[in-house]
């Protein structure tokens, strides 16, 4: 899609480099796979570390990145968040201008194509008088790891009161 937007592929449809300002990267456990085979998960010999994907994406497009979506269901939530967060920091240390990380979805929800409850958010699906209950372990991991953000943007936000 980014090649279409930038005009690298099928320029006749109107894409141009200037239309790419920030690249949003969605990343889930099943984003790597063997054609006609199962997903390649962490630990598989062919698995490419997420930091490498971020570095390659920045090298290809030369635009700041944001991890626009990431998450996983169930017991792997904390480990997945910690993995993605650590990989983001590795990419930043390698020079990738990474503007942030968005946990998605933020709240548990019914499945997109069935009614099972997907426990993949920071917040519970149920709303009580006090609001939604936060997943304690994931909350702790997010606080422990701290924000993923560009220090210049973070400083500007502090100075402007955002």
Plain-language structure description:
- The chain is α/β, with parallel strands linked by helices and 162 residues long.
- 33% of the residues lie in helices and 19% in strands.
- It has five helices and seven strands, in the order αβαβαβββββαα.
- The strands form three sheets. It has a three-stranded parallel beta sheet, covered by helices on one side. Strands 4-5 form a two-stranded antiparallel sheet. A two-stranded antiparallel sheet has the order 6-7.
- Helix 2 links the parallel strand 1 and strand 2.
- Helix 2 packs across helix 3 and helix 3 packs parallel to helix 4.
- It is globular.
- The two termini are 32 Å apart.
- The model has no long low-confidence stretch (mean pLDDT 90).
């Amino acid at each position: 899609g980014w090649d279409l937007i930038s005009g690298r592929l099928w320029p006749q449809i109107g894409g141009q480099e200037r239309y790419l300002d920030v690249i949003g990267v969605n990343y889930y456990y099943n984003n790597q796979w063997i054609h006609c085979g199962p997903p390649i998960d962490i630990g598989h010999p062919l698995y490419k570390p997420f930091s490498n994907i971020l570095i390659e994406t920045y090298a290809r497009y030369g635009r700041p990145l944001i991890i626009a979506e990431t998450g996983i269901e169930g017991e792997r939530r904390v480990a997945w968040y910690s993995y993605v967060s650590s990989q983001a920091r590795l990419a930043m240390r390698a020079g990738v201008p990474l503007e942030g990380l968005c946990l998605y979805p933020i709240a548990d929800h019914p499945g997109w194509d069935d009614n099972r409850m997907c426990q993949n958010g920071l917040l519970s699906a149920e709303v009580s008088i006090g609001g939604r209950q936060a997943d304690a372990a994931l909350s702790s991991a997010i606080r422990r790891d701290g924000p993923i953000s560009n220090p210049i943007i973070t400083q500007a936000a502090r100075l402007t009161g955002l």
